[in-house]
């Protein structure tokens, strides 16, 4: 736990959007960024059966690999490529930027919490779980 002082944070839900033209998606992850706590992390879960039922042509392994890339960006390690070399704010900016790929961020939301890691777990359970 970071402390008892409330800290402002931002988050985006990561959506699997195999066909942008149909505007259908399933939530597969959430990224939380808290500048005051130097915190940037992702929680993700891929329900392969649910994705396969909703999107039979989807390459689920590719979705998982892309989410592992997001983990690397958050962690600042080699899995995140060049984006991982930047500071936390820039990495969150990269992750929240709209793109036309199978994995897309939703709108940015915010809140306050004394513990960003616990909030990530709560959001992951609520929005993805």
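-> sequence recovered:
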């Amino acid at each position: 736990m970071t402390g008892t002082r409330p800290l402002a944070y931002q988050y985006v839900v990561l959506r699997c959007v195999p066909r942008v033209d149909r505007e259908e998606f399933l939530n597969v992850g959430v990224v939380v960024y808290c500048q005051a706590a130097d915190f940037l992390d992702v929680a993700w879960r891929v329900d392969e059966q649910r994705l396969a039922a909703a999107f039979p042509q989807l390459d689920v392994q590719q979705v998982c690999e892309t989410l592992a890339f997001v983990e690397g960006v958050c962690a600042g390690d080699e899995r995140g490529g060049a984006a991982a070399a930047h500071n936390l704010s820039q990495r969150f900016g990269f992750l929240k930027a709209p793109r036309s790929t199978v994995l897309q961020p939703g709108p940015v939301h915010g809140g306050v919490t004394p513990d960003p890691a616990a909030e990530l777990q709560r959001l992951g359970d609520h929005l993805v779980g």
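The chain has a mean pLDDT of 93.
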